[in-house]
């Protein structure tokens, strides 16, 4: 009788491959499981079995969604393809926020523009209801032709914004010198597409061309690796690290990351609040006098 060892080995290999596929499928992002549509009715659509979400804007309304879970710190990734063509006046967002007048917020906003002009990548940070910490960039690629990955890393030491895993901004925790930092309010992740023609494009001088509507932005591969709490209370013994990896808790920038960050800021940053001396006649905010890369 021929040996059964090769057959057994093949079966074990097949089972191993099948188990790997099952685990991969189980851990893949699924918008049906991860988010709730918050406004826009059918303008927000979950497609492809939960792996793609589209947000649309017309002259009646935009659309948006929020995560089911709240988080206190974590790494949050989303792949986004923005509104193509003449997107002037539209704003697509991916951000974290708590609730209330003294809320915390970590913003990524994409300000549309006339056809052929680049998007503005707008970032801001709120702590205890106060923001005014804007940095803006021009992206080094066309964000409307393909999906790109946008990331917020938020831990107790710093907030890092990344585009395709390239750091573009760091906001450090400088509570020691009296600068508020978002570190004790749980936040949900949000995304939306809305009309901001009175603000987003050249101070409102360029209006939305509604003949181009509906405008559509696409989202996929949402990944939240952090301290999740669906009950809304502070993360503690009932919370969980959603993916098990805890590298985000201490993530900073090594020498290579610092070099990439400086290069991006030199070539692509178009506004930095710490450089806006006219905005702060009484003196720059305290954090502007410190290294923001720590």
Automatic annotation (TrEMBL):
Q: What does this protein do?
A: Catalyzes xyloglucan endohydrolysis (XEH) and/or endotransglycosylation (XET). Cleaves and religates xyloglucan polymers, an essential constituent of the primary cell wall, and thereby participates in cell wall construction of growing tissues.
Principal location class: secreted
The GO biological-process annotations, alphabetized, read as: cell wall organization
Q: Where is the GH16 domain?
A: 26-219
Class in the EC hierarchy, top level: transferase
Q: Posttranslational modification, per the record?
A: Contains at least one intrachain disulfide bond essential for its enzymatic activity.
Q: Which residues form the active site?
A: 105, 109
UniProt protein name = Xyloglucan endotransglucosylase/hydrolase
Organism of origin: Ilex paraguariensis
Q: Which GO terms describe its molecular function?
A: hydrolase activity, acting on glycosyl bonds; xyloglucan:xyloglucosyl transferase activity
Question: What family, per the record?
Answer: Belongs to the glycosyl hydrolase 16 family.
């Amino acid at each position: 009788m021929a040996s059964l060892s090769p057959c057994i080995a093949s079966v074990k290999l097949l089972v191993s491959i099948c188990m790997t596929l099952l685990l991969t499928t189980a851990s893949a992002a699924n918008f049906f499981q991860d988010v709730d549509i918050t406004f826009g009715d059918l303008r927000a659509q979950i497609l492809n079995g939960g792996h793609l979400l589209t947000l649309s804007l017309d002259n009646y309304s935009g659309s948006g969604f929020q995560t089911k879970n709240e988080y206190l710190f974590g790494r949050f990734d989303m792949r986004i393809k923005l509104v193509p063509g003449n997107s002037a006046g539209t704003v697509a967002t991916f951000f974290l926020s708590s609730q209330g007048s003294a809320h915390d917020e970590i913003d990524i906003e994409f300000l549309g523009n006339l056809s052929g002009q680049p998007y503005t990548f707008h970032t801001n940070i709120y702590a205890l209801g106060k923001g005014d910490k804007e940095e803006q960039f021009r992206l080094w690629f066309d964000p409307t032709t393909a999906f790109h990955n946008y990331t917020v890393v938020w831990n107790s030491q710093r907030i890092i914004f990344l585009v395709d895993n390239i750091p573009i901004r760091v906001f450090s925790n400088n509570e020691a010198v009296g600068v508020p930092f978002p570190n004790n309010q749980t936040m949900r992740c949000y995304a939306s597409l809305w009309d901001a023609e009175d603000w987003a494009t050249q101070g409102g001088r360029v209006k939305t061309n509604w003949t181009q509507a509906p405008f559509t932005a696409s989202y996929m591969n949402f990944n939240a690796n952090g301290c999740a709490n669906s009950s809304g209370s502070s993360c503690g013994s009932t919370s969980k690290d959603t993916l098990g990896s805890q590298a985000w808790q201490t993530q900073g920038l090594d020498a290579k990351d610092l070099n990439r960050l400086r290069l991006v800021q030199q070539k692509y940053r178009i506004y930095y609040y710490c450089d806006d001396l006219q905005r702060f006649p009484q003196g720059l905010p305290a954090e502007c006098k410190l290294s923001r890369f720590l």
